[in-house]
Every structure is written in structure tokens, then in C-alpha cells.
Model the fold of this input.
Amino acid sequence: MPSAASLNRRLRNSERKRAVILEAALATFSKYGLHGASIEQIASLADVSKTNLFYYFNNKEELYVSVLRSLLDLWLKPLRSFTEDRDPIEAIRDYLRVKLEFSRDHPAESRLFCMEVMQGAPLMLTELQQPLHDLVENKIAVIQTWIDQGKLTAVEPYHLIFSLWATTQHYADFRVQVEAVAGKTLDDPGFFKETLISLETIILNGVTPRKTT
Done:
């Protein structure tokens, strides 16, 4: 019977290999899409055999959905920090920074998720209709509470969230366009800082309540 140490070592090796396969799948899917990518390409990039890859994932579609689920979790993590006890201006400021950092550090992930949504999210529709919908509804209630307490200007919470998504995602999903126009990307520290300050100014000035005289 294998020892506990041996079993733990096998588990760690299995988890590492699964992570390598997911990383290779992300790189391949973000470049070629679901239909353009092949299991052979992913297995080659991960340096595993097709047989070994199928030990972890039954087919290409399952692998694709696994990649997207991990991306969705990362993508939504900053929004989960919106809680009623937080100062809304600081919460939104932190969100902008974290999402811009994600767009800078994970452009391939952002583009893959964007590609799936633009195609109608055929393999992720259930995820979008349930976890995403439920989380957004929860945060809509938080934003509405901030508004009711006079901590935010009365705006439609849905559109605030959509605006936060759109402005921060743009720098990853349209990275080529940004570089063509501005000559820089978020990889440039100065441009990153400039972008963050600009978005903070535009969005925070729009939601900060005006003082009445």
C-alpha cells in the first residue's frame, strides 16, 4: 500500500500537470479559438501525450470550459469585494486598479473570454446565467444601498458595473488598437498610471455625490 507521502507526491504531480495543460490550452485557445485549436497543439505545448491529456480532460470542449471557468472566477473576483460596509469610492477605486492590473497581466485570458461572449457564449451560457447573474444581482443591491445612504450619486447600478467592465477590459481586449493609437500598452508603467488616474477621474467624479450649498 502506498505511503501517505507517496500519495501526496502523486497528487501534487497530478495537480501540476493539470495546471500545465490548462496553461497550454489557454495559450492555444486565445490564439486560435475553440474551433481552430487542436488537442494535438495543446498536448505538444504542454509536453504531454494526447493519451495523458485525456486522462485529465475527456475532450476539447471540456478543456475549453475548464479554462473559461477559471477565467470567469478571476474576472469576477474584484467585484466580490463590493460590500455594504466598505466606502464605495474606495471600493470602486480599488476595483479599477485590480481590473487594470488583470488586463495588463492577463491579456490572453481577457481576449479569450471576450471571444467566447462575442460568439454568444454557447458553452458558458449556463455559467453566465447563474453564477455571474447571481453575483451581479448581489452587487447591484450593495450599490443601491450605497446610493440610498447618500454615499454615491443616484445612477443605475447595472450601468455602473457595465461601465467598470467596459473601461477596464478595453485595454486587454483591444490591446492592438490601444497600441496603434497611443503607441503604448499597459505594460508601460507610465501609461498604466496615466490610464488608472484618467479612469478614476472620469468614473469617480461621476459617482461622487455633489455637495449642496
Notes: The chain has a mean pLDDT of 89. The radius of gyration is 21 Å. Residues 68-207 form a domain with the Tetracycline Repressor; domain 2 fold (CATH 1.10.357.10).
